[in-house]
UniProtKB/TrEMBL annotation, chains A, B:
It comes from the Bacteria. This is Iron-containing alcohol dehydrogenase. Residues 9-178 form the Alcohol dehydrogenase iron-type/glycerol dehydrogenase GldA domain. It comes from Thermosipho melanesiensis (strain DSM 12029 / CIP 104789 / BI429). PANTHER family: ALCOHOL DEHYDROGENASE YQHD. GO terms for molecular function: alcohol dehydrogenase (NADP+) activity; butanol dehydrogenase (NAD+) activity; metal ion binding; methylglyoxal reductase (NADPH) (acetol producing) activity.
Length: 379, 379
């Protein structure tokens, strides 16, 4: 087990009828005006927006709204929101949406306090030193962003999909109400499951030894995701399944799943980011369903014992990679690049984009050549 | 699953050679003078005290020392330390020790800021509203106090062993270096294991349904404690076992093990507190090894499925209670009141003390009569 520092100051408010508490929490924190950041409008259909607006109104909290954060969120929208946050002198950002909205909101929270180009955080030019407080209401359990300091955004000009991480952008309060996810399309639940399982696997398979407790917790998270995803595909309104699913996705990337690990491998994520950078219609979870098993196949000799343990613990089958792929098929996730609409000659382009981050990975340092081979396996 | 709020702002600094970082952390937080609270002197034997003193000196941090916190810590020592903290105008409390020292330090941190009697927090007369910052260096993994806001102290005048809980006394930074536990006597490791397993079981068996993820995490913690305790009884210097053991005891009571539960049952703990209030030589873990299986036996019809699941998952045996008792025997923990030195006619006295807290429990509300029966089973 490696030395580690665990520090997660997000207050997680979890359960039924918690969305309507947002005004109360903001008032307690003396917030008077927020920038409400949102996506394409689904929160108007499922009633979340109305609940939020009413709660803000009842607690006399002013708001200015910025809409239109899209899946695989883009830098231009972040910059637009930063301008508005500054002009309107808001005290806090309130993100109401899924991973894209919350990731963008983190950049807005930090960018509002930074004179330079917010992209500097993503390219590692500068570290975040401060941010205005961020509050989140999660509408789609998947990325775990509701309880960590990570943000991933795409720069449309350069097709770079990069991330930054900072303690300053952990949500101060994060509301997760599983009930508001009853009406999600099935494929979003599937993509969320794949995303969260991938987060756990990035740690689980990073090559660190003697992480017995973390390994068991990781298997617990994946088992619960497998079990609840199957239940939700049958009955999207199963509250208990939604709640266990939601909590699993949060714990998959709030630090708990990686305790004592060497920070995770993250090659599969980096390679996947190339997919959605080239084709923004590729959902992150869908891309991971294709890339992660390909990476596992490429490195399998380095982790043969762990793969067998994973397979047996989660699926009752020793061939962990095959068990995972079969389960992805079963729940309707894509399992190769062709299903995502990529063609043979895209491999070179994807390799080019992903290789900007090379060498990558911890279990095995991947160079351009390795990345290309993994993409070929994924094809 | 129940609604919940999870908020744990302790920064956990975990691993080898972390004790010597205390000065650096305190300096970063602008702490200039601490009250160093300690126990009977074991930290002078194992080298921890020397490391702490050197680190404080190197970072120009003044200290005043208060020694003599004993196992099953007492109110008089807390009051003594509060007086000194006030007189010396310290900026923070630095607890260096096990659960007793840290629990006492929490009371000192809160009591220093409170004009009245610090016992008021324990009897629920008043809630903690503020505290001076608390820093901890854990020398004995057991109670989980290093990453929560709980404090248990005995009032020697009334023989009451009560607790309070407050967000204000979570350690700001908590250092856990498994290596400094190499020299612990075996029975302290055993008691620590029993204590932590009992914490998990208080949640696991509290009667809440549909807590699939928390249940699996709980089983993970207990499995890891069982595995590592056996390893440590063979080789107390096994770092990886110490580290997994230590992390398991922390997670057993930092909020993670009870996610979505109804707060835990805690009858066994309340009854055990009577044991060590009557006889302060009874270690908390040893008392729990006797009381918890007795409680399980008394309520077993209410949790038969869960007991079978627990038994199978942890020990591979359906009779969960018997498996647990057999394992306690195997590791050398006591399994009845007689082994702890109690006699038949102590049952009435213990019932009297424990019943001050009655009715208690969530799974089953226990009255005086129930408590007496459980103590008879335990005898």
């Amino acid at each position: 087990m490696n030395n580690f520092v665990f520090y997660n100051p997000t207050k997680l408010v979890f359960g039924r009828n918690t969305v309507e508490k947002i005004g109360e929490y903001l008032k307690k924190d003396k917030i008077k005006k927020v920038l409400l950041l949102a996506g394409g409008g689904s929160i108007k259909k499922n009633g979340v927006y109305e609940k939020v607006v009413r709660s803000l109104f009842e607690h006399s909290i002013e708001k200015v709204e910025v809409w239109g954060v899209r899946p695989n969120p883009v830098l231009s929208k972040v910059k637009e929101a930063i301008e508005i946050a500054r002009k309107e002198k808001v005290d806090a950002i309130l993100a109401v949406g899924g991973g894209s909205v919350i990731d963008s909101a983190k950049a807005v929270a930090a960018g509002t306090k930074y004179e330079g180009n917010v992209w500097d955080f993503y390219i590692g030019k500068i570290k975040v030193k401060e941010a205005i407080p961020l509050y989140t209401i999660l509408t789609l359990s998947a990325t775990g962003t509701e309880m960590n300091g990570n943000s991933v955004v795409t720069n449309e000009d350069t097709l770079e999909k990069y991330s930054f991480s900072s303690i300053h952008v952990y949500p101060k309060i994060s509301i997760v109400d599983p009930e508001i996810q009853f009406t999600l399309p099935a494929n979003q639940t599937v993509n969320g499951a794949v995303d969260a399982i991938s987060h756990v696997m990035e740690y689980y398979f990073d090559g660190t030894s003697n992480t017995q407790l973390a390994d068991r917790i990781d298997e617990s998270i994946v088992k619960t995701l497998v079990e609840t995803t199957e239940k939700l595909l049958k009955d999207p309104h199963d509250y208990e399944a939604r709640a266990n699913f939601a909590l699993s996705t949060t714990l998959a990337l709030n630090g708990i799943s990686g305790l004592g690990h060497s920070g995770g491998d993250w090659s599969s994520h980096a390679i996947e980011h190339a997919l959605s950078a080239l084709n923004p219609d590729v959902a992150h979870g869908a891309g991971l369903a294709v890339v992660f098993p390909a990476w596992l196949t490429y490195v399998k000799d380095l982790i043969s014992d762990k793969l067998a343990k994973f397979g047996v613990e989660v699926f009752g089958i020793e061939d962990g990679i095959n068990a995972l792929k079969e389960w992805y098929k079963k729940i309707g996730a894509p399992v190769n690049l062709r299903e995502l609409g990529f063609e043979k000659n895209d491999i070179e382009k994807l390799t080019d984009i992903a290789s900007k981050m090379a060498p990558m990975g911890r279990l095995k340092k991947l160079e351009r050549e390795d990345i290309k081979k993994i993409l070929e396996i994924a094809f």
